Amino acid sequence: MSPATGASNPDWTDPDCPVARTLDLVGDRWSLLVIRDAMDGARTFTEFQRRTGIARNILTDRLRKLVAHGLLGQRAAPSGRRQEYVLTDAGRDLFPVILTLRQWGERHAFAPGESHSTLVDQNGVPVPEIAPTSADGALLGVDTTHVQKIR
C-alpha cells in the first residue's frame, strides 16, 4: 500500500470517510476512464490515449498515480520493447463501482431510446441491475442505511 493511503496523509479531503478517500484516489473522470478501459482490455499508453482522447501529459500523470496507489501494475509487454499496464486486485475490485456508474448512466444520462453501449456477460446476456441487499435479503437504499462512526 502506498504511503499516500496512510491515516496521517494531510491531503485526504475527509480522513475518516471511505467515500472521500476513494474519491481522493480515483475521483477524477480520467482515472476512472483509464480503469474502465483497463477492464476492457487496454494495456498500453497508446491504447488508453486512443480510447479516451486524453492529453498525453494528463494520461502520464493518471497512469503514474494509479500505479503508485496500487490500482494498476506494470509489466513488460510480450514484445519486450514496452511496458504495459494491468489491473491489480485493488483495480479489479473497482468493477462493481464501474458497473454501478454504468447502470446509473444508462438510466439517467441518456434520453429515452438513445443508443448506448451495453455490458454483457460471457454469454452475451446484458448484466442485471445491481441492487444492494442486507444480510436478510432486503433491498437497501438511502432510507434504510446510515453511517456509523467507529472509534
From TrEMBL:
This is Transcriptional regulator, HxlR family. InterPro entries: ArsR-like_HTH (IPR011991), HTH_HxlR (IPR002577), WH-like_DNA-bd_sf (IPR036388), WH_DNA-bd_sf (IPR036390). The lineage of its organism: Bacteria, Bacillati, Actinomycetota, Actinomycetes, Pseudonocardiales. Residues 17-113 form the HTH hxlR-type domain. GO terms for molecular function: DNA binding. Transmembrane segments: none annotated. The keyword Ribosomal protein does not apply. It comes from Streptoalloteichus hindustanus. Keywords: DNA-binding, Transcription, Transcription regulation.
